[in-house]
């Protein structure tokens, strides 16, 4: 706005001539008019003193003001205060985070600001930043650029460049260039010169030019003198920046590195033996291929092709051979008897003299050395007994008695006397050899007598033997598989645990009697066979531990209870065992009869692989060994045995097959038996699982789906009966059903309704939503979230489902919320359910009324009568339903402008020209005089009379008094 008042004059002419032609006699009236121009925000802000450009050192600290010359002006005097901001740009994405624009002065028509460093700078990363500045007056915008140049500061040490590894021959002359070391200043703005020095120089082999970085040899090199056989030398090199003509000595001007130099070998040493002469004695029966007991080594200190050499023997007899034939560097040497048979009786074979030669193969000249080997031959028993066959096989019934002849095996010896046949003695060794005996002179093999059975050790062995043959659980098995707390298992019976009773019927050893073992869901079957004569007298009651037998061995810490009763049995499985023959009395005492432990037993071991020895010189000479295979002929006397004490498998809920396949296998040592399988369990087990009676493969029934909720347990225990038609055993099965996330969370209601007052504080609980998930474990853990509809005014606790106020509510902004709440489980993949929560906001009288528009205008004729309605004020209160709650009034300041646009002083009487009643109506209160008061400006108030505290709004009423043509034109007198 260039001026706020426009003044001009209007002329009125009446023509007195009858012809209507303008003449000097016409009457003319001149009327001056003044127009007051009110300012509006119609000009954009303007940056002054552009373009902007500045510099900053790269080590400037964050918080430093780097530019304070930003000036923005606006030709308007109304509108919002000016503001300026940094606008991110694609080519300078981090400029607005590195630098901040801070306003130092802000008015409607003027703004000053400065740019402050926020983050450290690095000249090597970026040298120039360009910032786009945006100025705004609330309606219009203007932009300008600021270019910031980063000045380099010397704060980076030297950087080594190029390879720092080299290879040089050990015969290189002094002064040979090995490598050139090069480093540059890490600061690229004004790089400094670099000087070099050697920090470590092993053997003082090298010199380094401090200016050029050239590394040269300082004296003759010798690879063999180095402690490292590879010829590797590590040098430490330091690079220093030259600061004001002096090499620096701090971390910002010095860098250190290592250079590796490999000295290449030159052939200057022959291969050498550790001795020049070797002596050894051999017996005449030394076999071909036997190495001589000598410590012979050879070494060439050179490397590479210079250290490759060949070994050979100068041996006219061709009896010996050397290994290896080719060597690189060094090696242990083995000399063996190669060809022919040594014979002490032949005078020409009592001593051998052999020359050992080592000669290089790839050098010129080929360097070599020699050593002498003297071998003396001594007499020995050089023939060992020989058998007609390499191995022997025979068989015997497992029921054969002691002394029963199995077979006779003899050997021959070419020597004579005690060294020959007369001195041969026979023996048998190997696992199970104690069950057989051999005549040392004749070689006859027979069944051995069993040890007496009246010793405690033998009784324990018999019990263990029976346990290996009959698979019934011991108390220690129950304690091991079920944590040792039988009472805990009994107490958990209500949780869907199945019970099973095993009844062991022992027939033949005493009068027929049975012993019940009631266990939870078929525990792990251990190796145990219970007999009446092995049972202790003590018994146990329900839920208690049995006493321990005093005759238990080291691995039988449990007793053998008559009854272990854990809970009420649901079913009984009888396991019958055949009659066992009574003990047999022999001359050595009461022993186990044929086939009883620990004698021959096909089920315990059907084949014995033994070593049969023949030794000459009355058992003190040479020995020959052959293998003897003794096979036992089977008798059907053993029950099937489960290959595993407990079969375990895990399947997912709803699975139809086991992956991998689950096969229950029992083995029967009796080769003629055929095993059939069937499931032993309650209806829930047999309904969900099936078994192939021939193969034992366990499958999931196709008619019923696996469901943890229906089974009420994730673990299913049952037994599989394996029978060969005569004997029966139970194999235990534990199936773990892994819960699958197949149930989505569900809310109790599809819709929730609630209401809350708008002035409730943030954090107030609105509603608690809860969903349930029929899965288990992590699949049943639920997390809640608001999907939509909260407009960020509400939040939900993701674990408890409690919805609370997150931001201040405003009835006038939004009075109803319809939120979609989602409950998701933590399964994979996650499943979810939804519900709707409707929250109604109850209005509160918390907002002040306001005029609309804030500045209201009216016009009234100068001749308006007192009481004339000039204007009706308009105000709004969002919290009241009726305008009757609003009271209007005038207040200071009240100002006026005369017809010439000048402000009227306070002493003038104009403030009561108009009257405002409580309803907002504006009336003429006194006679109006436009010549004195052309524009009246009244400050008006509106008050909410229903508010609990004072709530008022302020506005401006501008009344323009229009002129009335109340004086006729006047004709000036002549």
Automatic annotation (TrEMBL):
<feature type="domain" description="Cadherin">
    <location>
        <begin position="48"/>
        <end position="160"/>
    </location>
</feature>
<feature type="domain" description="Cadherin">
    <location>
        <begin position="852"/>
        <end position="971"/>
    </location>
</feature>
<dbReference type="InterPro" id="IPR002126">
    <property type="entry name" value="Cadherin-like_dom"/>
</dbReference>
<dbReference type="Pfam" id="PF00028">
    <property type="entry name" value="Cadherin"/>
</dbReference>
<feature type="domain" description="Cadherin">
    <location>
        <begin position="643"/>
        <end position="747"/>
    </location>
</feature>
<dbReference type="InterPro" id="IPR020894">
    <property type="entry name" value="Cadherin_CS"/>
</dbReference>
<keyword id="KW-0106">Calcium</keyword>
<keyword id="KW-0472">Membrane</keyword>
<comment type="function">
    <text>Cadherins are calcium-dependent cell adhesion proteins. They preferentially interact with themselves in a homophilic manner in connecting cells.</text>
</comment>
<keyword id="KW-0812">Transmembrane</keyword>
<feature type="region of interest" description="Disordered">
    <location>
        <begin position="453"/>
        <end position="479"/>
    </location>
</feature>
<feature type="domain" description="Cadherin">
    <location>
        <begin position="274"/>
        <end position="387"/>
    </location>
</feature>
<feature type="compositionally biased region" description="Low complexity">
    <location>
        <begin position="540"/>
        <end position="554"/>
    </location>
</feature>
<keyword id="KW-0732">Signal</keyword>
<keyword id="KW-0677">Repeat</keyword>
<dbReference type="GO" id="GO:0016477">
    <property type="term" value="P:cell migration"/>
</dbReference>
<protein>
    <recommendedName>
        <fullName>Cadherin-related family member 1</fullName>
    </recommendedName>
</protein>
<feature type="compositionally biased region" description="Basic residues">
    <location>
        <begin position="462"/>
        <end position="471"/>
    </location>
</feature>
<keyword id="KW-0130">Cell adhesion</keyword>
<keyword id="KW-0675">Receptor</keyword>
<dbReference type="InterPro" id="IPR015919">
    <property type="entry name" value="Cadherin-like_sf"/>
</dbReference>
<feature type="domain" description="Cadherin">
    <location>
        <begin position="388"/>
        <end position="447"/>
    </location>
</feature>
<dbReference type="InterPro" id="IPR039808">
    <property type="entry name" value="Cadherin"/>
</dbReference>
<dbReference type="GO" id="GO:0005509">
    <property type="term" value="F:calcium ion binding"/>
</dbReference>
<feature type="region of interest" description="Disordered">
    <location>
        <begin position="540"/>
        <end position="560"/>
    </location>
</feature>
<dbReference type="GO" id="GO:0007156">
    <property type="term" value="P:homophilic cell adhesion via plasma membrane adhesion molecules"/>
</dbReference>
<dbReference type="GO" id="GO:0045296">
    <property type="term" value="F:cadherin binding"/>
</dbReference>
<keyword id="KW-1003">Cell membrane</keyword>
<feature type="domain" description="Cadherin">
    <location>
        <begin position="160"/>
        <end position="273"/>
    </location>
</feature>
<dbReference type="GO" id="GO:0016342">
    <property type="term" value="C:catenin complex"/>
</dbReference>
<dbReference type="GO" id="GO:0008013">
    <property type="term" value="F:beta-catenin binding"/>
</dbReference>
<feature type="domain" description="Cadherin">
    <location>
        <begin position="748"/>
        <end position="851"/>
    </location>
</feature>
<keyword id="KW-1133">Transmembrane helix</keyword>
<feature type="domain" description="Cadherin">
    <location>
        <begin position="600"/>
        <end position="642"/>
    </location>
</feature>
